[in-house]
């Protein structure tokens, strides 16, 4: 199963994009956005396999991919309908509409009638908040890393807050320590935000998150969220 693709855009028309990876293979992906040709994209992929076909649906964030896959569990909702729903309404609007049982919002999406909207609310109302535990940040490769670094060493850019800014003058033997502290601080903050959105109090989440980071090699905030939720 393909879960993520990074590569150069060789074609994009707002309905699909062809991504050429470093291996020289071009993947055709459904994507409701026009990407400039020759630009570099990084997409989370939902690989939909049917009896007679395989389709790739591309998303710029992990949260969008996970919501799409949750929509596929709804009775009589197919991949194209789910994809259209996300591109038409957006992630937060769908979550809010399901939680508040607002069929009117869901029916604004093309092809979604009263029956389909009711089914989404029925099937997803008790689990859709779980989508918020997933990262909602776009990930792109820096220009320098694209041109010079091997594929396995490329560096991700992030909008995360650096909790230890201003330490450029530190000795090189301590820079790794501060980098590790900064990464852990960022993961804790993101985990706290995600768990708050799921209804958990910060004072209950923080000690568990700190304990997990001290005992487990966690590298991503969504991993930390999953581990915290297992202990709640």
Task: For this entry, give a set of tags.
alpha+beta, OB fold (Dihydrolipoamide Acetyltransferase, E2P), about 230 residues, globular, 3 domains, 9 helices, DNA polymerase, domain 1
Report helical residue fraction.
40-55%
Instruction: Tell me the number of helical segments per DSSP (H or I, 4 or more residues long).
Output: 9
| CATH top level class name of the largest domain | Mainly Beta
Termini gap: 31 Å
Shape: globular
What report would you give on this structure?
The protein is of the alpha+beta class and 232 residues long. It has 3 domains: 1-59 and 138-159, Nucleic acid-binding proteins (OB fold (Dihydrolipoamide Acetyltransferase, E2P), Beta Barrel); 61-135, DNA polymerase, domain 1 (Orthogonal Bundle); 160-231, no CATH class. It has helices spanning 62-71, 79-89, 91-99, 103-106, 114-124, 143-148, 172-197, 202-215, 221-231, and strands at residues 4-12, 16-20, 26-30, 40-49, 54-59, 140-141, 156-157. The strands form 2 sheets. A 5-stranded antiparallel beta sheet has the order 3-2-1-4-5, covered by helices on one side. Strands 6-7 form a two-stranded antiparallel sheet. The longest helix is centred in the C-terminal third of the chain and has 26 residues, at 172-197. The protein is globular, with a radius of gyration of 20 Å. Residues 142-179 have low confidence and may be disordered.
How would the blueprint of this fold be written?
Elements: E1 4-12, E2 16-20, E3 26-30, E4 40-49, E5 54-59, H1 62-71, H2 79-89, H3 91-99, H4 103-106, H5 114-124, E6 140-141, H6 143-148, E7 156-157, H7 172-197, H8 202-215, H9 221-231
Antiparallel strand pairs: 1-2, 1-4, 2-3, 4-5, 6-7
Helix pairs in contact: 1-2, 2-3, 7-8, 7-9, 8-9
């Amino acid at each position: 199963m393909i879960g993520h693709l990074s590569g150069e855009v060789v074609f994009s028309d707002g309905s699909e994009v062809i991504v050429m990876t470093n291996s020289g293979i071009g993947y055709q992906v459904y994507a409701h956005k026009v990407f400039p040709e020759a630009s570099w994209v990084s997409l989370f992929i939902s690989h939909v396999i049917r009896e007679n076909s395989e389709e790739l649906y591309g998303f710029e964030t992990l949260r969008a991919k996970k919501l799409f896959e949750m929509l596929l569990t709804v009775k009589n909702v197919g991949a194209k309908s789910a994809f259209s729903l996300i591109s038409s309404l957006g992630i937060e609007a769908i979550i809010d509409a399901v939680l508040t049982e607002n069929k009117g919002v869901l029916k604004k999406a093309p092809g979604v009638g009263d029956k389909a909207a009711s089914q989404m609310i029925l099937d997803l109302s008790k689990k859709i908040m779980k989508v918020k535990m997933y990262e909602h940040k776009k990930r792109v490769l820096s220009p320098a890393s694209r041109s010079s670094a091997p594929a396995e060493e490329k560096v991700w850019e992030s909008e995360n807050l650096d909790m230890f800014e201003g330490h450029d003058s530190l000795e090189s033997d301590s820079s790794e320590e501060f980098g590790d502290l900064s990464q852990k601080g960022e993961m804790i903050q993101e985990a706290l935000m995600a768990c708050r959105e799921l209804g958990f109090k910060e004072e209950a989440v923080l000690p568990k998150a700190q304990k997990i980071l001290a005992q487990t090699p966690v590298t991503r905030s969504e991993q930390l969220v999953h581990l915290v939720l297992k202990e709640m």
